[in-house]
Structure prediction request, 238 residues.
Amino acid sequence: MADISGSPGYRERPSRFGDAVVWERTVAAGDVAAPVLPDGCIDLLWREGRLVVAGPDTTAFAPAMPAGTRIAGIRFFPGTAPALLGVPAHELRDRRVELADLWPAAQVRRLTEQVDDAPDRLAALEAIALDRAVEADPADPVLRRVVHALGSGRSVAATAVATGLNARVLHRRSLAAFGYGPKTLARILRLQRAMEVARSGTPFADTAALTGFADQAHLSREVRELAGMPLGELLARA
Prediction:
């Protein structure tokens, strides 16, 4: 679930967990949220007394929430959450799943009450992640190298060489860690790079050249396919 920092009433900060950020939002009357772009991340969300896991998206997600809705979340960087949650990322792809469907219901009721009653819900969500990390297996360190390589524009083949994985193993481990194969992850990370550059006011043709697209038309096609709207409209709503 991607950053919606352009949405009104949104704030975000780095998490004490490390490979994550925490964020919260209160929906005001008339708010039109920017679409949530795919980014390879998984979020643990608190929303009005429920704990929900938002899996890695393959296309933009348009949240529809009534005015007054309060939501808080911890967004785990790509490859980080599956070890904590105890479920492969591809099982969560394009899904919003109740945490009680993944963990024992009694445990989730207790955790939900803790977040409900906490004076700082972001700190309460961080505490869940930190406590879970003590019990869970650590994230595979090669995953960070995969994200770095693909995020810097390396090809899937070059990433396999850099990480010492053959193509089949890279694909299998990417599905479990990120929710999709390395080719899709590379497209998503490239879109994120392009959005960051375009938000700075860089012309679209230059944005395409700087972020690994063949040309502006290629950038436009990818934005429409992954975000569901033209780049200009997406930037206006971000």
